[in-house]
Amino acid sequence: MKHLPKEYKDIYNQFSQKIDPSRIYTEPLETFAFGTDASFYRLVPKIVVKADNAEEVSYILSECNRASIPVTFRAAGTSLSGQAITDSVLVVAGNAWKKHKVLDNGDKIRLQPGVIGAHANNILRPYLRKIGPDPASINSAMIGGIAANNASGMCCGTAQNSYQTVDSMKVILKDGTLLDTGDADSRKEFEKSHGNLLEELKQLSQDVKNNKALSERITHKFKMKNTTGYSLNALVDFDDPFDILEHIMIGSEGTLGFIAEITYRTVEEHQHKASALITFPSIEDACRAVIRLKSEPVQAVELMDRVSLRSMENADGVPVYLKDLSENASSLLVQTASNDKEKLDLQIEQIKKSIKDIPIEIPIEFTDKPSEYAKLWKVRKGLFPTVGAMRETGTSVIIEDVCFPVPELAEAIPALQALFSNYGYDEAVIFGHALEGNVHFVFSQDFDDKKELERYKAFMDDLAKLVVDRFDGALKAEHGTGRNMAPFVEKEWGSEAYEMMKRLKAIFDPNDLLNPGVILNNDPELHLKNLKPMPAAHETIDMCTECGFCEPACVSHDLTLSPRQRITVYREMMRLKETGEKPEVLASMEKAYDYQSLDTCATDGLCGIACPLDINTGEFVKDLRSQKNTPTQKKVASAMAPRMATITSATKFALNTSNLFHSMLGSKTMDSIAGGLRKISGNRVPKWNKYLPKAAPKVKPEKYTVKDTKPDKVVYFPSCINQTMGLPKGQEENVPLTTKVKQLIHKSGYEIIYPKNLSSHCCGMPFSSKGFKEQGKEISDRLEQALYEASDGGRYPIVCDMSSCQLTMVENMEPRLKVYGPVEFTLKYLAPKLDFQPTDEPISVFAVCSAKKLGMESKLEELAKLCAKSVVVPETNCCGFAGDRGFSHPELVEHGLRHLNEQIPKEVKNGYCTNRTCEIGLSTHSDITYSSILYLVDQVTTAKKKPVKAQ
């Protein structure tokens, strides 16, 4: 904190009086990490505060108001226009703000700002409802940002955005006052304390209404998608000042107050959907079709120009005919929906009929199969990442969205294409929500070169002329004004409307302390300042656009760093090394980076699934760990790799010793002693818990031979973990998993072949995850050879009893070896030969991260439903155990499973997953015992009297 200016030291001390100092950040790594968002701007806050509740936000605002210190709010930080960054105080309202409540049988939902949009829809799914806004970032964007930016999306349009569907909200003003617009008592109190503010709002509204030309202009502008400036339509649409206030907060980007809670009126989620990719010979033909489709029963109409289609033609799973389209072809991705299948079919015919006289390149074919229309939507959703991946290292990805009147699309889009051509942005792709005239475009830009910056400046000036002067459109349709379009707000709206916006800002924030510089700004070159450097840092991460889509999938997010933060901090460290500037900042970052990034990354790779560019930050972290491994450590790893049997024996001895003391001392005393030893050792001694098992008995391979003519054989490779770990003290089950798997396979009529030298094999993951790549590959190759021999060159299926080991084997080994995990093997090979009698006892299942990466999440639920009549599936990511990291860094598991217990009903007594170490963490942080799903399969099945051949 010593580097802070005096006024910020003072405000830090004030915050610390009522907020836990562990949630107030001032160190360079932390402030830099939280200071990034998805835009191409960069400001570093002086203080970051993770506020836990409305009372803390009220306190922060009142203290900053008193001290005249600016405050900015952020939730997920997926904003694209620079509205979630600051060089002052940043208040983060994320993971502590997850409360929600379904109202009126799903017709309404009350949400705190930290709820992710997709999670809100998951909550509403049983009611066949959803929230109206559906931004492309809905899987990571949080409600606070969705409302504050009035985000919309592909199906939302202007009828179902936050402005149109807000029912009430709790808002905190700059002086710390909290108003609940849905509570009569709160409104009465507010009238007493802030009567002047309400009167000023009423007067402003009246002044706008008295200006007929202006009010008509406002109404006209908001018939199209428009997030440029403030929601002036609230001044025209409402008379009650509370209604005006409530709606003016939508799209205000944190410049008028903090939205602490919002209640939405929900919209219908149709059960039947169908999509078609309709391709036209020209963009003009596609736009003519859009005008027709505007009045048809369509839910979404997404436009893609030829450049965008060409950028996706080589992607996996997309239609092959994309490569053969004509030079000027353009496509519309059309979706229609209904709750009635017959009605859906009628709608499809109606849509086809409406555009039958417009030329097309390929016959129109709608599909209502989710697996098929998902491929079509992959074309649309892959556009932004595809361009991002194609850019030169060191450049930024620019994504903008404008809106044209729909009848003028056929003229406007070719004009936009010509503008790109004039400025040499030949790789730019154009796509968007054509039904609303909302057009997105994406291109790459080098901000380090002065000439390139001048090119961008001139382009933006001409873009404003094209959109505003020629077509009277909107410069921001749904991404919010932010910093990028703040210099152009007056140009779009005119001086009268702009003056009303300034009056509005003055009513709520006369001293310009709430997110200053955003929406309203007198600097005509603001959009060219504080640009984010994107230096080359590491080939694995160089293409990262810092969008933040990875963060909800990361177990360490909000404990230490997220994948995005690991990348952005590393980039900055590499930049500081290159330039030599701020050596004290670099030293501070480097010192903190090991724990914040390398030590607490689970390396589970779920971030890679969520990433639009498939960037696996776990692989990046493994590489950094490898670089940090000393020669001595590498020698030790090399010595251990060929001696897995010895390591297994030593670990078994340790487990039995621990189990002996546990039996003698009891759980409470054992926990106290072990905790003391861990503390004395500086956390070098692994964390003990009562679910730590005793050693497993040695696996005794059977004597079936590979060349035996009997066909029903499987190769079973018991993971080294399950060869080592037996059952914990007090568990009802008395058979170790390796024996249980053997019994289950025999019950299904199969003979088992074990690889030779069983106890000496390992998949290699314990080494590779710690950065010992060569050693991990050495033992992986040795196991592959043993499995090749055991399976007769891939003739027999191979089953491994842990998903994480299966994933490692699948990734490392030749595809000729068919390696299955517990779930897929059971469904494909065992289930056809077993009769299931599902238990009445409700159960919980947890898909571990490796099962998710293998695509087994839904398969696990399918298997569980064969075994039990009631199945609970908690909404979680990785448990955080990460191999053995749960022993060395138990805080990662505690953080990853902090919401597990509240999601499991009390009547559930048993849980199941597919990873032994994960079971330890899951059992520790819930009130139930977790074990392998194979125990449950064995419990509820009997062998069929007449076994059928496996599928």
TrEMBL record:
Q: Which residues form the 4Fe-4S ferredoxin-type domain?
A: 534-564
Q: Which PANTHER family match?
A: D-LACTATE DEHYDROGENASE (PTHR11748), D-LACTATE DEHYDROGENASE, MITOCHONDRIAL-RELATED (PTHR11748:SF111)
Q: What GO molecular functions are on record for this protein?
A: D-lactate dehydrogenase (cytochrome) activity; D-lactate dehydrogenase (NAD+) activity; FAD binding; iron-sulfur cluster binding
Taxonomic lineage is: Bacteria, Pseudomonadati, Balneolota, Balneolia, Balneolales
Give the protein name, as stated in the record.
D-lactate dehydrogenase (cytochrome)
- Which keywords are on file for this protein? FAD, Flavoprotein, Oxidoreductase, Transit peptide
The EC number(s) given in the record are 1.1.2.4
Enzymatic class: oxidoreductase
What this protein needs as a cofactor is:
FAD
Q: Which processes are annotated in GO (biological process)?
A: lactate catabolic process
Q: Which organism is it from?
A: Rhodohalobacter barkolensis
Q: Which family does it belong to?
A: Belongs to the FAD-binding oxidoreductase/transferase type 4 family.
Pfam family of this protein, just one?
CCG
**Keyword set includes Oxidoreductase:** yes
Q: Which InterPro entries match?
A: 4Fe4S_Fe-S-bd (IPR017896), Cys_rich_dom (IPR004017), FAD-bd_oxidored_4_C (IPR004113), FAD-bd_PCMH (IPR016166), FAD-bd_PCMH-like_sf (IPR036318), FAD-bd_PCMH_sub1 (IPR016167), FAD-bd_PCMH_sub2 (IPR016169), FAD-linked_Oxase-like_C (IPR016164)
**SUPFAM superfamilies from the UniProt entry:** alpha-helical ferredoxin, FAD-binding/transporter-associated domain-like, FAD-linked oxidases, C-terminal domain
User: Which residue range or ranges hold the FAD-binding PCMH-type domain?
Assistant: 41-269
The protein's superkingdom reads Bacteria
